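S2.1 Query sequence (Glycogen debranching protein GlgX)
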Amino acid sequence: MSSAAEQEAVAGAVAAEEGRPAAVVNGARHKAPGVPVWPGTPVPLGARFRVGPDGVAGTNFALWAGGAEAVDLCLFDEEGKETRARLTELTHEIWHGFVPGVMPGQRYGYRVHGRWDPWTGGRWNPAKLLLDPYARAVDGDFSLPPEVYGHVRDWPQQHVADTVRDDRDSAPYVPKGVVVHDDSPDDEWRDDRRPKTPWADSVIYEVHVRGFTKLHPGIPRELRGTYAGLAHPAAVEHLVKLGVTAVELLPVHQFAHEDHLLRKGLRNYWGYNSVGYFAPHAAYAASGTTGQQVGEFKHMVRALHAAGIEVILDVVYNHTAEAGELGPTLSLKGIDNRGYYRLQSDARRYADYTGCGNTLHVVQPHVLRLITDSLRYWVTEMGVDGFRFDLAAALARSMHDVDMLSPFLAVIAQDPVLRRVKLIAEPWDVGSGGYQVGSFPPLWTEWNDRYRNAVRDFWRGALPDVRDLGYRLSGSSDLYAWGGRRPYASVNFVTAHDGFTLRDLVSYERKHNEANGEGNRDGSDDNRAWNCGAEGETDDERVRALRRRQLRNLLTTLLLSTGVPMLVAGDELGRTQRGNNNAYCQDNEISWLDWGLLEEPGWRALFDLTSRLIELRHRHPVLRRRAFFSGRAHSADGLRDLAWFTARGSEMTERDWYAPAATLGMYLSGRDIPGRDERGAPIVDDSFLAVLHAGERPVSFVLPGPPWAQRYEVVVDTSREEQQEAPGVEHRAGAAITVPARAVLLLRVVG
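Output structure tokens follow.
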């Protein structure tokens, strides 16, 4: 079956045979069939539309539920009327059956029977309709009334509430899976060209599908906040002008909103509360939610690929939206709680390495299969180019401890599909021994929070010396120069979705999370921020100018550093969250990008500088090295690939590294770049001297003389609001130049 027309033809044939109206592919006129369930097959898992015995079209359903006693398939019509069918076939702990006449667009769920025994981890409750873990699309939203909980949520004695079974039907209150015809036509991806950007050439842009597009004036209103909106030429144009090579999308797996947020009239905005690992989040679809969201997502990927932009998904396989023992029963908890989640020795309780109430038991083969099947699906069927794994250390745990030889990491390393895509670890979790920055194996890159901390500390004047900063600027060899890893193992960032925006980092020293409704107790207190003399927004133009300069300093430092830079959407525009450093529940103007900032000269200048720095990085391979610096001379004149200088113009000594300093000179030689280009020729580039000065007063800096240079040309000067284009001001080597207070100068060697 390779086209929608063929699907409709099969649907018509089946309907005629049964004497009923034809179903519409991905439509809403489907009528649940009144036919027996045929045996079907245990593979593949999920609901897969296909042609069955005797050429009869239908859907094969297969669900792993190892400890269950029985499984009911539940089909729903337009009015929500439910038809149940018992899956009687059991093969290798997989319950399965083929239902003739079930077409794409059919909504469904499961009721799983078993023993209610929370004391041993058994939480089966057939009164609760469960989402298929392999559902390719989800229709509806989770509202989380009491009926959705497997236990009596409002039991007076809360310490034992999870042991009292709730027998009310949850079906009217939960979304349903949707049968999707995912056997795409052969030519669907024929015009798609994956950019395949090398790691060293990558610039990542962390973006929220809804927040990026919600207020964009160039996107039609009906497309704002959706996958189609991100695919719109107006959205793509911004990404291309900026020069980023990849978007890293905050979670787009189907997720649920937490009960404590819904009770306060808030919603989960970030999406780190997954419940469907195969389904694009339905609320981000403009075209419909009975399967149309799948095609819309694919179209978005193709549009970004056509612009040379890769798509990386932020994925949350460490926990689910079902939380702990007092959380709702939505899917895995009711299918086989003991089989899917890590439990404590007291099996009523969950092992929680995530801070979200539960942790998936990735050591279990079927859980590992769920995750890897999901990953491969998003690569092969949905076209994505890589993944950023939230709390990846939780996935790398064996029985208890983080283990870099764990089953999860081993499976990824040998998988012929997954080992070829971009893999980014958030290398920590909240459990004991969970901080693992620098420890993931060579296949992986990592979010480097030590880079974030060092750069923030330097520019706020908090570093007693510059030792750590030197490592971070040059690729963090102290963390990654082992096992064949390269500088691009470090994903460098100053800000991320979690924490202050870049503008807030220089405008606030304290979090202001009152809008979250938690008494400002949530969010980190370790912001490493400096407000430049006033807390929050101010009319003082001196403070405002200093803040804009600090933004230029931070962005310039990030984009000149060796490694893979990651920007957060809106930081290049001066986006503010009004001091909220934990805006996970703010689906409003606090989180959405304010595109009107581009009309303000100061913020437009910031965008222009960011774009120029990215273009400079793309043009000069010395700024995106594929190998670590050696620091050794490779020629008779003594010039080295990397050298560090004090303001006196002398190379830094061991004593200088340990002395308090606000000024650092970094020399990058374009003559000694290791490796060869695609044609086998040596890689040769310009050489640069970057001078970073975080002091509150100007400093005299002596430019290094031969063999480093004869003359220098200023390429970037962050003390200037408007950047001049090259050729810039030239200086003779050996001359003392004045570096303005709190500024970065980038000078190109011109002789």
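The chain is about 20% helix and 20% strand. The chain has a mean pLDDT of 93.
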